[in-house]
Design goal:
Order of helices and strands: EEEHEEEHEHHHEHEHEEHH
Strand order of the largest sheet: 7-8-9-3-10-11
Helix content: 25-40%
Structural class: alpha/beta
Number of strands: 11
Bound molecules: adenosine-5'-diphosphate, magnesium ion
Length: 252
């Protein structure tokens, strides 16, 4: 089994606020890891550290077999900037807010980074983008601007845009949290299809149905620690950690 993400002893603080206190996370190829836990527990910060949107203070991270940073006696040492950028590009990220480029059509949103950052052949990228749009059910929105789309459609474009970079891993940070309830299903469906295709995914989510049915592993984070992790059965049916038990009582 190939390890796609190995994060060991991750520490991160903002000013004096210790947000991640020695987090370990391992994600194997094809796994779907759901990260759950109370607000403020450090879930978003963890995702942002994995793809270098934040710099960690201590610990080591290996992505897709390549070292991003290595723990040292003083904290951590990152690889060269060029390598950091290349490794970060192995991860596609989808945020709670869709963050589409408002002045670009759907197709332009998809091809922007593959053409301008990855320097790939434009005609080929367009062909692939059209396939991705079909996959998320938005072929007819190819030349439309984001403001003309519903939240669920925008989020599906955001997923297709991340996929257009051909990532080895997809990170999702509460992708359905800002959607009206009737629109969450279409986004979860697109994510479920990705999971069925064995995409390696880390999903921060409050959608316990998704975590239960789609995740291969569930990680419960609170107070900057992984309090408990295991299969969906272990986490939802036989939780051991007291914080997890009370969290589940409140949300289920
Ligand atoms: P979660 O995603 O689990 O709700 P976050 O990772 O967003 O938690 O936040 C964890 C803690 O870190 C919170 O107390 C939050 O206010 C704080 N925090 C997150 N990002 C920053 C930042 N850029 N600067 C200062 N504090 C931050
Ligand atoms: Mg968050």
């Amino acid at each position: 089994m190939t390890t796609k993400i190995k994060a060991t002893n991750i520490w991160k603080k903002f000013n004096n606020l210790e947000v991640l206190k020695g987090i370990d996370l391992e994600v194997n190829e094809g796994e779907v890891v759901a990260v759950i836990g109370p607000s403020g527990g450090g879930k978003s910060t963890l995702l942002r550290c994995l793809n270098k949107l934040e710099t960690i203070d201590k610990g080591s991270i290996t992505i897709d077999g390549e070292e991003l940073c290595r723990e040292t006696s003083g904290g951590t040492e990152y690889v060269k900037n060029n390598d950091v950028r290349r490794i970060a590009c192995k991860m596609g990220m989808v945020f709670q807010q869709f963050n589409l480029f408002p002045h670009m059509t759907v197709l332009e949103n998809l091809i922007e980074a593959p053409v301008n950052v990855q320097k790939r052949d434009k005609a080929e990228v367009i062909k692939e983008a059209e396939v991705l749009l079909a996959k998320v059910g938005l072929s007819d929105k190819r030349d439309v601007y984001p403001r003309k789309l519903s939240g669920g459609q925008q989020q599906r474009v955001a997923i297709a845009r991340a996929l257009a970079m051909k990532p080895a891993i997809m990170l999702f940070d509460e992708p359905t949290s800002s959607l009206d309830p009737e629109l969450t299903g279409e986004v979860l469906r697109a994510m479920r299809e990705l999971a069925d295709e064995k995409m390696t995914m880390v999903v921060v989510t409050h959608e316990m149905g998704f975590a239960r049915e789609v995740a291969t592993k569930v990680v419960f984070m609170a107070d900057g620690h992984v309090q408990e992790q295991g299969s969906p059965e272990e986490i939802f049916i036989n939780p051991k950690n007291e914080r997890l038990k009370s969290f589940l009582k409140v949300i289920l």
